[in-house]
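Why does this matter for the project? Reviewers at the last site visit asked to see concrete outputs rather than summary tables. In response, this paragraph embeds two records directly. Each consists of the residue sequence and, immediately after it, the corresponding structure tokens. Nothing has been edited or filtered.
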Amino acid sequence: MRKSCNKSVSYSLMSEDLVKENNSINIWRDTVDKYQVKGEILYGVHPVSLALKEKKRHIFKLFVKQVNNKEMIHKMSALNQIIELALAVDVPVQKVSKRVLSNLSNRHVHQGVCLDVSKLKMKNEQDVFLNLKDKKCLSNKQLPVLLVLDQIQDPMNFGAVVRSAYYFGIDCVLVVKDNSCRLSPVVSKASAGSLEVLDLYQVNSLPAFLEKMKQEGWNIVGTRGYSKNNNYTENIPLVSVQDFILAKPTVIIIGNEGRGVSYHVHDLCDAFLTVPPGQLLYTDIESLNVSVATGIILHRLLQTQNS
């Protein structure tokens, strides 16, 4: 009897959660329909302001929180700056309640602003080769670095990696077409708006792209969790990020959260980078979050470039 009772309680709680989730989706759809949203909703001060500045998307309407006299002046100032940006490019502005903004953003942290925009499109990988030839996507650094995101699926990780890539001055970011996270508003918010600034390129076939880069003289470097072994496979060295020296133009591959770098590109790598731990680790927590590891690796590359 006690066993069946527990099952009943568990099912009841699960059903209640599903009802709440469905109600939330219905409220979001009703709000989107009511306010005639044409694209998708960006939210948050940084993504919205940078989308207005960069103009990489079609922008349909700005929704701003109606501020009352009791709220802080600096919040009004930040909202006014965004309103000015919108009006400067002839974007309609509508003041709405906090509840409407919450519904438009699907309950995310909107900071008082939402922006109705078209979806962000990635550039073609052929543009990479054209830009490399013309040196359009390269900085003045002698040893450029390209970053490949190999099937990263979590939008928070994806956004954090893009933010690090922008911060550390990566010359070009490429995304594997299949099984990768889409460029959603969640990604833009997680990137603190870096997604609105940095150009991303879509790679249809990662092995073919890497083969071509190797022919052009680029170093291909994968990444993986820490191991005591000096070789990842029989012929590919595993190098601590502390010991890595940037000696020529390099492609860095950041692998999937669970599987790592795709198996079919392992043999194309000249080396694998790893971040060594500061102590002996339990088996279940023997690796870093992919965005944290990426930040450490890119910081090390920046140090190498500067030296």
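We now turn to the second protein, recorded in exactly the same manner.
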Amino acid sequence: MARSFFVLTKSWLRNQGFQNVVCFSSRERLPQEQNCLPFVPPCNDVTTDDMHKLQNFVDANEKILVLTGAGISTESGIPDYRSEGVGLYATSTNRPVQYTDFLKSADIRQRYWARNYVGWPRFSSFFPNTGHKVLSEWEKHEKIHWLVTQNVDALHYKAQSLRVTELHGSAHRVVCLSCQNVSLRTDIQKQIEAQNPTWHASSVTMAPDGDVSLTAEQIKGFKVPECQHCGGILKPDIIFFGDNVPRPTVQFVFDRLSESDAVLVVGSSLEVYSGYRFIIKAHDEGKPIAIVNIGKTRADPVAVLKISARCGEVLSQIQIK
């Protein structure tokens, strides 16, 4: 089975390292949400009229394809790249590693893995928020035909959504670029720790994909993990900037889209074409598109409804009949 098409159970999640899988009510404030709003850009309160329109949109469509982006996870405490005033691009000169640079440069791989190693304990501990949980409940009520996420944080799986495609992969898996063996990120963390018993660094900043900011001096002496099967280069099983989503994954989502009645975009500006292509296809097929996202998106001109408000606040007010 292709890595992007897992259908999961709670026991499977625990076997994959998610030891603290918990359930929350969609109306209840989740543990981290109270202190995570600094990563959410300012927005107006959602209006009654907008909520009425979104309720009608959900009621009118029985098989909704949901496309989520980083904006849904900022309410869990994970920063994003593009949010106005609070995203990485607005607050830092750091930029994500390019795929070709990662392949070509041992120094860049050392920098990447050192930063990822330091950031992993925090990144892997984030909880799903109200928005994730609401979408999981919608799936249980058979309102969601399929959920496609551009996020690599596995928070939809932690919220127990099952019909999920991780368009950009998952930071919770690591793949060998030579033999294609896939490992759990938790196992690689143990491997790195064993290889670097005296190396230590810390940082207070967190990037959207789980790494942190470290100086060149801090990175010195860090030993990069290699595949324990063949000695090959290890890379998190995510789509780096400059890389492409595998064609089978794209076609799988196109097929699920064709089976759907409508598309709901949650927390994405759709600036990256890998997700925007599905909006183009949906519009070409005459499917209605609704958007919940703070700030402009590329799909605003073709949407039947756009709500610029927090994802969890909006989704938790919808009643599934």
